[in-house]
């Protein structure tokens, strides 16, 4: 069986000691904003677009590394993590995977205004550092949420 892989970008948005999560309809998991990287997009552009579409927030992506520049080269914002996620597994083999570029982003506001056709603002929850310990959050979401808050607050 051939494995189909898609590139996606995810942003753990932090504001005032909390990160923004929603319960994903299909997966039943609590996740941050994110989605597929379009053919004409760079990964960090997709990350910012997904946050804007899903939440209405404008965020500043966290950067730790300096720039490399020349007439033909420029650095892109580096993700905090690069993950391989199994989405559809059949008979122990992944048929569909996401190559997830995970960013951390700072929001200046908690006021949400998702675009038409997206989940409502009420579907999102600002989850505090302490609340991330709850059993409803997977260990990876817990760890990355904590890390985002630590780095951005």
Outline the structure in words.
This protein has 153 residues and is of the alpha+beta class. 18% of the residues lie in helices and 39% in strands. It has helices at 43-55, 139-152; strands spanning 4-15, 18-23, 30-31, 34-36, 59-61, 69-70, 73-74, 81-90, 93-107, 124-128. Strands 1, 2, 3, 4, 5, 8, 9 and 10 form an 8-stranded mixed beta sheet that branches. Strands 6-7 form a two-stranded antiparallel ribbon. Strand 8 (81-90) and strand 9 (93-107) form a beta hairpin. The mean pLDDT is 94.
Blueprint of the fold:
Layout lengths: L3 E12 L2 E6 L6 E2 L2 E3 L6 H13 L3 E3 L7 E2 L2 E2 L6 E10 L2 E15 L16 E5 L10 H14 L1
Parallel strand pairs: 1-9
Antiparallel strand pairs: 1-2, 1-4, 2-3, 2-10, 5-9, 6-7, 8-9
Task: Give the key terms.
alpha+beta; 153 residues; eight-stranded mixed β-sheet; 2 helices
Q: What would the average pLDDT be, to the nearest integer?
A: 94
Number of strands: 10
Q: What's the SSE pattern?
A: EEEEHEEEEEEH
The largest sheet, given as strand count, sense and whether it forms a barrel, is: 8 strands, mixed
Alpha-beta content class: alpha+beta
Strand composition percent: 35-45%
């Amino acid at each position: 069986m051939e494995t189909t892989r898609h590139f996606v970008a995810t942003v753990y948005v932090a504001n005032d000691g909390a990160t923004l999560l929603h319960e994903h309809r299909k997966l039943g998991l609590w996740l941050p904003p994110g989605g597929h990287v379009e053919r004409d997009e760079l990964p960090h552009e997709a990350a910012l677009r997904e946050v804007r579409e899903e939440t209405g927030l404008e965020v500043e992506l966290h950067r730790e590394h300096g720039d490399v520049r020349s007439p033909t080269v420029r650095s892109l914002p580096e993700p905090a993590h690069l993950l391989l996620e199994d989405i559809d597994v059949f008979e122990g083999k992944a048929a569909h995977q996401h190559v997830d570029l995970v960013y951390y982003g700072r929001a200046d506001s908690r006021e949400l205004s998702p675009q038409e056709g997206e989940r409502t603002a009420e579907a999102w929850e600002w989850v505090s550092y302490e609340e991330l310990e709850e059993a409803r959050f997977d260990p990876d979401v817990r760890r990355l949420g904590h890390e985002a808050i630590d780095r951005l607050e």
